[in-house]
Design a protein that fits this description.
Shape of chain A: globular
Mean pLDDT of chain B: 88
CATH topology of the largest domain in chain A: MetI-like fold
Order of helices and strands of chain A: HHHHHHHHHHHHHHHHHHHHHHH
Oligomer: heterodimer
Order of helices and strands of chain B: EEEHEEEEHHHEHEHEEHHEEEEEEEEEE
CATH architecture of the largest domain in chain A: Orthogonal Bundle
Number of helices of chain A: 23
Largest sheet of chain A: none
Radius of gyration of chain B: 24 Å
CATH superfamily of the largest domain in chain A: MetI-like
Low-confidence stretches of chain B: none
Strand content of chain B: 35-45%
Distance between the termini of chain B: 38 Å
Number of strands of chain A: 0
Chain lengths: ~550, ~350
């Protein structure tokens, strides 16, 4: 038994040695990997910043004086309008589904997410057909004996795009608001009831203020999708910042102008992200850990129940059912009803591409999250946040931001090989599938990252230590302990990533190899070339694939409850 | 006996803004002993445990295990190479593995037959042979703890660390596990260091106790040493209830309102001092024969004894004296009683 007298032995050399030692603990394969991920993902932003400093071109001045105002106005007009409608549809249905009993409530819980399976541009194409002079609505009215004229149901304009986008994108608001309501509503409802408040008053005075952070988070996802969209606005002839990027890149062939257009779009994105962060303040999205009590739902009168059921059916019918029926109809009358080899190749191309991206993306996410878990100091946590930033950058911006350095690299390597080795080589990275997969991962890493991270968070903090103390190094611990425990998270991350890649349009259009088509680009091209019935088959494949995760994930959620 | 673990001048700072979580800790753990690390939450005891395991790295200082430096300048042996067993607070049994698989997990470097032999040996120690094929969610709290203990013991570590081993158990089970843990560790001859915030755990299970306060080691010694001869006021108060009596040291002894206490060699004359005395070292007596008197004003029933509060008539300095009585002792609040202080059990500290 001894209690030594403490002595201060802080001499300079021990501090210095300590620093080297700390450096060694910080720089290791895991942290280097995380750092490389963040650097690669930052490529598009770095490119844009670099070229911004270079200064604008004459084309840009011309664009800025003529069309830029219209582009910005249209983009912001769409953002505001779609936010308004998705707010109304998403929040109302989320509240009704989580707190009220009505006919088919359980069905609506997951069916209201269905429109998420359909890309906006496909719905836009379908509705252009539905309201066309030769479409079903006009035919029906003519059959009834009215001749309303070609322009009566004019939806191919900015208002039309706005409504269509709203009915496709409201599930983002619905899902996040509903999660919040389900977590919070039993306490809120009980408190509200005990204080004698009716459902409407409880909704406006308690639920809405409390759920605000979740609703705004949902709305910001909606806004990102609106700004990302190229297909729907292009098809409807609406000029936005995103179509502006395409115009500068393809039609004008002006890299600097495309970059400046990207920069304006990113300014809008960062403004919105900033607003979201500012309003969120200190509110957090942590899951409610206490076991949620079975909720005593409001039981409205029969008449009200019918009204609620109708209200909840509307978004599913408009956002999913009608466009899908129209596509099935087109598919039925089209020539490619029977699967031919070229269609099979198209499907296998798309699926292979999506599967490759999905496996690579999930692996990157998994290693990234695990290295943050192993070395959880501040820089690593920032790298993790940074790596998921791609989801808020529009696909067209990522494509431009990656294509430029890839082209530059190809140019350099071709020159090098020709000059020194007299070798001719085509594209190495730009316009190759490798470049495309890389761009997909930059854009969609967050999609795989969050499910994996969430399932990591559900495991005990002690497992890593417990395994290491038993003599098992980190890499083997990941394989033996964590991967078996978080496989649901890995699978759902992979599935969501797969579907997102399959649906992706703007980035693919810019970065795909010459003459290479995915289901998405093919459907869009055919529809743009007035071969809309032929576009139905690839569109339907995309939709069917998109439904799979919705059903699987809703099953998973209900099993957990 | 030879120390198996030597901790020298360990300091840990988590960030520059916060103070030291641990400051200049020096501690030896002897072979075969059970050492309890106690302290309030936030005193740094779990941090010290994690430093020993290698799950954290210290800002300064060295740790030697079995004569081998595991932490020092330019040296950091990762946890998987330290050969230390650890039982985590929530046991951290891998949920996708059975008890047997959990134990085998740590036996990966042994050949098959000896691993098999070792598995049965540790299962026998913790009396879990019949439950070897169960998953952790199929086990009770006590069984989970025994499984975690078996898993930690299986690779034959130099010592094992236990983080709050009893905090998830309640009442009867806790008492039973204290006994079991001690006998398992003693029978297997394992050196153990365990962290607890519960003084009863520490007093009843350990061979020695180290008390931490705000990252500093206050005292280390046998349970009896710490309880009866605390070296400072904090230790005295941490291990149990105390009565504090103010006094003044003179050459005849320490003068207090409750009489004169024998001098202590550590205390200089002419100083304000504080005397601590535990409730069980104060006896009630008849009013006539006792020099000290007081009024009973509060009593609380503790099951096996009564804790009685008494307002002494002689003094204004402590407003009350707490003493322990047998549960069956009749107590009438408001009665004047006599009492006697057992001066040999008094501890004297400078009053700052």
């Amino acid at each position: 038994m001894r209690l030594e007298v403490n002595k201060k032995n802080e001499n300079i050399s021990s501090i210095k040695r300590g620093l080297y030692w700390r450096l060694f603990r910080v720089v290791n394969p895991w942290t280097i990997f995380a750092f490389l991920c963040a650097i690669l993902i930052a490529t598009p932003l770095i490119t844009i910043l670099y070229y911004l400093v270079e200064g604008p071109s004459d084309t840009w001045h011309h664009l800025a004086e003529t069309v830029l105002g219209e582009y910005i106005f249209n983009s912001i007009f769409l953002v505001i309008g779609v936010s308004f409608f998705t707010f109304i549809i998403g929040v109302s249905t989320a509240w009704l589904v989580s707190t009220s009993s009505f006919y088919g409530r359980k069905f609506f819980e997951w069916a209201l997410i269905l429109p998420l399976a359909v890309p906006t541009y496909i719905v836009a194409i379908a509705y252009a057909g539905i309201f066309d002079y030769t479409g079903p609505i006009q035919q029906f009215t003519q059959w009834l004996g009215f001749n309303l004229g070609a322009g009566f149901f004019e939806i191919v304009n900015i208002q039309g795009v706005m409504v269509i986008m709203s009915f496709v994108l409201y599930p983002y608001v619905f899902v996040l608001a509903r999660a919040w309501f389900v977590n919070q509503s039993s306490t809120l409802l009980e408190t509200g009831r005990m204080l004698g408040s009716n459902p409407t008053r409880t909704f406006f005075t308690l639920a809405l203020p409390v759920a605000r952070p979740a609703i705004v988070a949902g709305l910001s996802l909606v806004i990102m999708e609106v700004l990302n969209d190229y297909g729907a606005v292009k098809y409807f002839g609406v000029n936005t910042l995103t179509t502006g990027i395409f115009r500068s890149w393809f039609s004008l062939g002006d890299i600097a102008a495309a970059i400046y257009m990207c920069a304006v779009l990113m300014a809008v994105v960062f403004l919105i992200l900033g607003l979201e962060k500012w309003q969120r303040g200190k509110a957090r999205y942590d899951e409610n850990r206490s076991g949620s009590k079975p909720l005593q739902r409001y039981n409205p009168s029969r008449g009200k129940k019918v009204l609620i059921t109708l209200w909840c059916s509307l978004p599913i019918i408009v956002g999913f059912l009608l466009p899908v029926l129209q596509l099935i109809n087109w598919w039925w009358v089209s020539d490619t009803r029977i699967v031919d080899p070229s269609f099979a190749r198209l499907v296998s191309n798309s699926f292979l591409l999506a599967a490759t991206t999905s496996i690579l993306g999930v692996s990157v996410a998994l290693f990234l999250i695990y290295s943050i878990k192993l070395y959880p100091f501040w820089l690593m946590r920032i790298l993790g946040k940074f790596s998921t930033l791609g989801y808020s950058i529009p696909g067209a911006v990522i494509a431009v931001g990656i294509m430029i350095p890839l082209l530059y690299f190809d140019h350099w390597i071709t020159n090098y090989l020709e000059n020194y080795w007299e070798m001719g080589l085509g594209f190495v990275l730009s316009g190759t599938l490798m470049g495309l997969v890389f761009a997909y991962i930059v854009r969609f890493l967050a999609v795989a990252y969050y499910p994996v991270e969430a399932s990591f968070r559900k495991t005990s903090d002690y497992f890593l230590g417990a395994s290491r103390v038993l003599g098992v190094p980190p890499a083997k611990t990941l394989r033996k302990i964590y991967i078996p425990l978080i496989k649901t998270g890995i699978l759902s991350g992979a599935l969501l990533l797969f579907v997102d890649v399959l649906k992706e349009l703007p980035l693919t259009l810019i970065m795909r190899p010459f003459n290479f088509n995915t289901l998405a680009t093919r459907a869009f091209e055919l529809a743009s070339d007035e071969m809309v019935t032929e576009a139905a088959a690839p569109a339907l494949v995309i939709i069917l694939t998109g439904i799979v995760p919705i059903i699987l994930l809703s099953k998973l959620v209900s099993r957990k409850n | 006996m030879e120390p198996i673990l030597k901790i020298k001048n360990i300091t840990k700072r988590f960030s520059n803004d916060l103070g030291e979580a641990l400051k200049d800790i020096n501690l030896d753990v002897l072979k075969g002993e059970m050492l309890a690390l106690i302290g309030e939450s936030g005193s740094g005891k779990t941090t010290l445990l994690r430093l020993i395991a290698g799950l954290e790295s210290p800002t300064r200082g060295t740790i030697e295990l079995n004569g081998r430096m595991v932490v020092g300048d330019n040296i950091f042996i990762p946890p998987e190479k330290r050969k230390i067993g650890m039982v985590f607070q929530e046991y951290a049994l891998f949920p996708h593995m059975t008890v047997e698989q959990n134990i085998n997990y740590g036996l990966h470097s042994m050949d098959k037959p000896s691993a098999r032999k070792r598995l049965f040996e540790v299962l026998e120690w913790v009396n879990m042979a019949e439950l070897a094929n169960r998953y952790s969610h199929e086990l009770s709290g006590g069984q989970q703890q025994r499984a975690a203990l078996a898993r930690a013991l299986a690779p034959n570590p130099s010592m094992i660390l236990l983080d709050e081993p009893f905090s998830h158990l309640d009442g009867v089970l806790k008492d039973q596990m204290r006994e079991e843990l001690r006998s398992i560790l003693k029978n297997s001859g394992t050196t153990a260091l365990f962290v607890t915030h519960d003084t009863m755990d520490a007093l009843s299970v350990s061979d020695r106790i180290a008390l931490l306060q705000e990252g500093r080691l206050q005292q280390i010694g046998t349970p009896r040493d710490l309880y009866d001869k605390p070296t400072n006021l904090y230790t005295a108060g941490f291990l149990g209830k105390i009565n504090r009596i103010h006094g003044y040291s003179t050459d005849e002894g320490i003068l207090t309102d409750f009489g004169t206490f024998p001098l202590n060699e550590k205390i200089a004359e002419g100083k304000e001092v504080l005397i601590t005395i535990r409730p069980e070292h104060i006896q009630l007596g008849s009013t006539a024969s006792s020099p000290l008197k007081g009024v009973l004003f509060h009593s609380s029933y503790q099951g096996d004894h009564l804790l009685v509060h008494l307002r002494p008539s002689v003094s204004k300095s402590p407003h009350r004296i707490i003493l322990k009585l047998p549960a069956s002792h009749p107590v009438n609040l408001g009665d004047v009683v006599g009492f006697k202080i057992d001066v040999h059990f008094a501890n004297i500290f400078p009053d700052d």
